[in-house]
Amino acid sequence: MRLIQSLNHLHSSLFDGLSRLLDGWFLGLTARFIFSSVLMFYFFNSALTKIGDGIFGIFNPSVGAYAQILPPIIEAVGYDASQIAFFPWTLIVILGTAAEFILPVLIFLGLGTRLASVAFIGFILVMTFVDINFHAVDASTIGRMFDRIHNSEILDQRLLWLFPLLFLIVKGPGKLSFDHLLRRWVKSQTEQQV
């Protein structure tokens, strides 16, 4: 009995100390780092394939942008992007492309992290809907939960993408973030006015 109590005390001391040491900064920073290291450049490079020529190319999406985001729309006009109405179709493509550039950077910096994470989950859900319904992916690419295959390109990967985002929504980005600095600054400004 004494051995079990000693082991329990050692276990509690070790992990309670570790929790205190890492509390408030480590998990938020880690969730942002993992999400960013895996997906920031993936989405940045994806966005680069969608922009048109020139410095304002984001406002003139490429045919590929429509093919990736709105396949039935570009197919309906014979892949002639000039035939697509600005509202809502081109606006959707521009906003989707901008989201691929902006949201991962916000998450990386920890700036507007919770809202950026919510928006990114929405982006992933729309991306998944388009991939499944318009890009003719097969069942093995879609995957299933609790099957023996661990690396389906849609379900398995995207479920793992969602976890750090869900963590950031619930717990926030942590003390090593711009959100934390802004909160501290607002608090100090409020205290000075009182």
UniProtKB/TrEMBL annotation:
Gene Ontology CC: one annotated term: plasma membrane
Keywords of the record: Membrane, Transmembrane, Transmembrane helix
Transmembrane spans: 21-43, 55-74, 86-109, 115-137
Keyword Acetylation in record: no
InterPro entries linked: DoxX-like_oxidoreductase (IPR051907)
The protein, known as: DoxX family protein
Protein's organism: Cohaesibacter celericrescens
